[in-house]
Specification:
alpha+beta; eight-stranded mixed sheet; about 35% strand
Length: about 230
């Protein structure tokens, strides 16, 4: 089959201990999955069920990159997150079986045009302009699930120019990883290549050109991002 134009390479993420990389198929994101973050956003956490938004695979970049400050915003926020990589088909899986679909985990940044997210939310419109931003899904190398072990009270943290801005533990997740996979698989046929970003703790805030973001989760490779000038 011939195409009218050349397609870009499939975005992918390095995997510790592997020469081959993990190709990105889809990116799902869980909203307000830490109670303290929901509170700082002015909304009570929803404990009835998780909810989601998506980012396109084209928005993905690797940690260590320098990304330009995006157009259309003057309030660009960081959000430090645990991301999980699906490694086996999962559809309508139980909570008890959900972890069998996980290939690995990595640190991730969900960069957000906060002003646009909030203005669209206030008008009951989708969040796409605020969330599905070029270079806004940032991923560190993946650690295989067996090497990471059980999700418990691992520390999750983020710094801007060396100053701590987010500091919490994975025990504070409102919806656990198995619960997220089980619920999401009730609506989608999850497949290898699907990533799920599990939400951010409290402490989110704005960055400016020249700022350097660093972050980490105990047991995973750290992440960094330098904010460049707008293009």
């Amino acid at each position: 089959m011939s195409y009218l134009f050349d397609l870009p390479p499939v975005p992918s993420i390095p995997v510790l201990g592997e020469k081959a990389t993990y190709p990105i198929r889809r990116i799902f994101c869980v909203g307000r999955n830490y109670a303290a973050h929901a509170a700082e956003m002015g909304i009570a956490v929803d404990r009835e069920k998780p909810f989601y938004f998506t980012k396109s695979a084209a928005s993905a970049i690797l940690g260590g990159a320098r990304a330009p400050y995006p157009s259309g915003t003057d309030n660009y926020h960081f959000e430090m997150e645990l991301a999980l990589a699906i490694g086996a088909p999962a559809h309508q899986v139980s909570v008890a079986d959900a972890l069998s679909a996980v290939y690995g985990y990595c640190c991730a940044l969900d960069m957000t045009r906060r002003d646009l997210q909030l203005s669209e939310r206030a008008k009951q419109r989708p969040w796409d302009l605020g969330k599905d931003v070029e270079n806004s899904a940032v991923f560190a190398p993946i650690t295989k699930a067996a090497s990471f072990g059980q999700i418990a009270g691992q520390r999750i943290h983020l710094e801007v120019n060396g100053q701590t801005r987010q500091d919490a533990t994975l025990a504070e997740l409102v919806w656990s990883v198995p619960e997220i996979i089980s619920h999401l698989s009730g609506f989608y046929h999850l497949q290898p290549g699907d990533l799920i970003m599990t939400g951010t703790p409290a402490g989110v805030g704005a960055v400016l050109p020249g700022d350097v973001i660093t972050g980490g989760i105990d047991g995973l490779e750290p992440i960094s991002l330098t904010i460049g000038h707008a293009e």
